[in-house]
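Person: At home tonight, work slowly through the protein below, taking as long as you need, and write a paragraph about the fold.
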Amino acid sequence: MRLIIFTILFLLIAATLQVRAQQPTSCNGSLGDPVINQTFGSGSNPGAALPAGVTNMSYTTSDCPEDGYYTIVNSINLNQNCHTTWQTVTSDHTGNPNGYMMVVNASAQPSVFFTQSAPTLCSGTTYQFSAYILNLITLAASGPGVSEPNITFSVLAPDGTVLATHSTGTIDATQGPVWNQESLYFTTPDNVSSVTVVMTNNAPGGNGNDLILDDITFRACGPVIDAGFGSVTGSAAQPLCQGANATLTLDAKVEGNNNPTYQWQSYHTNGGWVDTAGQTAPSLNVVFQNAVPGSYQYRVGITNGTSTLASCRTYSAPLTVNVSTNPVIGGVPLTQSVCMGDTVSILATGGVTYQWSGPNLAPTSENPLIINGITLADAGKYTVTAYNQYSCSATASTQITVNQKPVPSISSDSTTICIGEKTQIVASGGVAYSWSPAGTLSDATVPNPIASPTDTTTYTVKVYNEFDCYTTEKSTVNVLKKPVANAGPNRVMVQGQSIKLNGKAQSGNIFYWTPDYSITGANTLDPIVSPSHDTTYTLYVTSKQNCGIASSKVFVRVYQHIVIPNTFSPNNDGINDVWNIAALSTYPESLLQVFNRYGQQLFQSIGYVKPWDGKYNGQVLPAGTYYYMIDLKNNTPKLSGWVVIVR
């Protein structure tokens, strides 16, 4: 095997010294199916080694091969301790995360990466030999002294003659992984019906020259094939609806070729592209009877002259007949029974657009169909046609029956009760009843429930007839609360004065106070009182609806009028011997203080149970003027003045 590979290398090197005929450099027309199609398969790492004779490199199961080795994997990941100078590659060229690719760490000497024979070719036919190549070296690791991939594509005749070569030149490093498609084009000589394709390393390994190969193909290249429905410039896709009957014409034309051989094919999911027997004309008629949903593909293959070899054909782009499933309409009941005056809404599903028709209804595309305030004249059959994106349609209908609503009555629109009482509300005119709120009713499903609300409540009843249509009625039960009386805070006054009481009331409108003496406006909340002594007044509150009576008391403290004499004579003659302040003793918490003209306190008394006798610490004070201050401790201003002791 090594001898064969070295022979191939020798022939390739020798071929570069020969002058060969000019070969095509591109394919501007159609391509055939691959004669060689090396995708390396797919699966978990690692993939199996290539068959013997395909490469002269050594296989390793490691996903990070060393110099002179290759592996078959679906990804290269630096997190798996791979070479730090390599790109992270997470999928093959097609983006398949499980797709295998050939990872090559090139040896220092030129080596054959790939070689494979392509038999049974047609002479005078142009072929494309191509592959996708990725430079594994990162941009950061590239630079002077680092080899970049440089690959020669070669095509050899059976006798070893080199028919064509193509060098990729240096494939530069990139910031991220970039796949490059490289191709060689050549035309087979008249006496050549099979070739060997070879991919050879031109750059030395050891430091760089690491790459990935994927999707290596060898296929025929032919002229441009125009194809379409109805004409060669027609559309490439034709919609059709489920169950349709149609005959479709597919037309094809080869540009610049006056003597092509045609062969139409259809695609079968279980067998790929299959020749359609006898269909070798530029046109193809495809007949559909009661079309079944699915995608149907057709293409035409052409060869030069009379050859029918598949390896010599090139193909037009596929023409597709898309048979769409007709919409399946949902949401439309067969029948509906509704009540007059209701709003009817019917939402059809399963389509993209809709068309409705029915009694008293102008055709409309609105969906859902909404009928506001339906009447007896609107009863009847309503039909919807649903269309999908391919204008395929289906229909559905519903029969609407419109029923009259009941005409109910109720015993009273409004009733008044005292809190804690009950009352009966009565509705009539139906076969079933539903009251709300139900929490304070004896039974919310009878026509005459007992209501016992604690607050004013409006009850709503739905009165149903035999068609389950209903009309609502309302009845309000006004709940009067029990009266609440508040006579206000206790009051303080001085004898001979008058004060206003501040009574308050809730849920009452009749008021009176007791006792009824020394009071003006006893039937109001704020009467004027002028008692001569301490008195407790009581406020009574009731209402015209007689929902109970409430009472509240207020205490009026009456302080006696104080008379302060400005002189007394403590000479023990039994007359005016003490400073007798009338009524001060009725203020048990009061404070009396007496001072001389220097501010010295000479006497103090709380409550003034024992009048002052004109002494200080048991000693008789001299005649003269003294000063006093009295605090009654009842939130009234302090009293002050002078008193004279006469001897």
Q: What stands out?
A: The chain has a mean pLDDT of 91. The chain has one helix and 51 strands. The two ends are 158 Å apart (CA to CA). The helical segments are 2-15.
